[in-house]
Write a structure and sequence with these properties.
8 helices, alpha/beta, globular, Purple Acid Phosphatase, chain A, domain 2, six-stranded mixed beta sheet, 33% helix, five-stranded mixed beta sheet
Amino acid sequence: MEWLQAPARLEPGRRLYAIGDSHGCAARLRALHARVTEDLAARPCADAVLVHLGDFIDRGPDSAGCLDAAMGFAACPVINLMGNHEETANAALDGAGHACTDWLYTGGREALASWGISSLSPRESWVSGIPQRHRDFMAQLALSHRVGPYFLVHAGIRPGVALDAQSREDMLCIRRAFLDSAADHGAVIVHGHTPTRDRMPEVLANRINLDTGAVYPGGRLTCAVFEADRVAFWQE
């Protein structure tokens, strides 16, 4: 691994793995899981955790496979975060307002196809056609997780608002107010949601963006490895 200086320091003996938005790119997600497993075997760590930053589904070819991969990883404890795409899918499956149209427009067609469901079929067939384990997984995702000086969340946080007072909408959807801020947020925010233009992780003093556009042409899926005062990145 090529180690870089991290903007914060983990306590000795701790390690954090974080994976950005996989968006149906299940083969890439499984490849990163294999690298995490190999790293833990080569460099055992008693206090390691893997955090997925959400947006497992939509746009890519295998949303169902991404959910299975996340659910099946067992090399260390795992925290799975909610992305705005899971939030929209949950609302669509619950029959809320315009959520069905919103989901189809933002990648739900590809997600439904991964379960063998036509987007032209009635919403009730979506509910019955998606395995219960996948619906339960998406419904129970966490909004954020903190590991030492790092606060992990899908989209970001509202500057000037305490981390424990952030709104659900901001954590799932915020962009410019967060991305343009140079403020000290009280923790380094590790996030996804907004693909980087150069398809490389973005490391700033107050945040690290791991959405490197896995589902887009030229994009990659990124895993960050944090330990002590350093960070490394793997991409598939």
